[in-house]
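Annual report, structural modelling task.

Input specification for the NAP complex:
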Amino acid sequence: MVALVTGASSGIGEATARRLAATHRLVLVARREDRLQALAAELGGATVVAVDLTADDAPDRVRDAVESAHGRLDLLVNNAGAAWRGRFDEHGAEGVFRHMRLNFDAQVRLTEALLPLLRRSAPSAIVNVSSVAGRIARANSGAYSASKFALAGWSESLHLEERAHGVHVGLVLPGYVETEGFPARELTSRPLLRWIVSTPEKAAEAVVDAGLRGKPERYVPRPYGLIAVARILAPWLLRQVGRGRIGATLTTSTGAELSEAEGEAGPRAY
Ligand SMILES: NC(=O)c1ccc[n+]([C@@H]2O[C@H](COP(=O)([O-])OP(=O)(O)OC[C@H]3O[C@@H](n4cnc5c(N)ncnc54)[C@H](OP(=O)(O)O)[C@@H]3O)[C@@H](O)[C@H]2O)c1
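The model returned the following structure:
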């Protein structure tokens, strides 16, 4: 069995690669080759493709590497992603397009390149890593939410379309998971709020549920699924949360550019 994990150089992707190492031959994809090579060595060998997934030739490069090294693909985990926080009137359309290029377009383009191989290897599976932010939007992260809503909607449709071809499509929607890109320090530093933050290992287990155990969608931590229910049943409540009137401390940061913007507009959630 062969599994490809994008964003395998850190966080949820790295934990997923570790989780799958005992049962799958791995293809590790991200930009930081040194990290991928170190992980491959630690796991006893893996195919490494160091590539920027937003580059024009990325899908062809990844497909060629998988074809020549393995000739099959049983599991594709579209996990690579990032968030740059800010208001629409600060970052404008380009801020939205930047998120879409990495968090949506890159997943769609890679899936298109690998789908023939996945169908040939069926039964096989695709897991798309969206976010709770792909079910509910908050201020200052509209561009990120747009990309994750798009990924969730597209995944649900693909799930229905690919059944006939033996390719299961599962969706993972993480809430707060402590990683390099999403450190959630404001939560982890407060004992009363620490429990809200999950681990990359638990997110990796959710990927296994959505990929190998046939779940159509999986929240991590699981109670975050209630947010999707609340969005339908009590949208007013979520608007209060979004405005910061309830749970104003549910905040996190995501890397250098995000931190730069924090002082002005407050931190970003999931
Ligand atoms: N952690 C959370 O709280 C949380 C919550 C909801 C959703 N998520 C989603 O979970 C996924 C994984 O995030 P994470 O928390 O594990 O963050 P992370 O530790 O920052 O990992 C992100 C991964 O994506 C890769 N990546 C970023 N840009 C890339 C590019 N242009 N081309 C190729 N690879 C790229 C990074 O590798 P390189 O830098 O080496 O390229 C890294 O391996 C993301 O899609 C994120 O939106 C996370």
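The longest strand covers residues 167-174.
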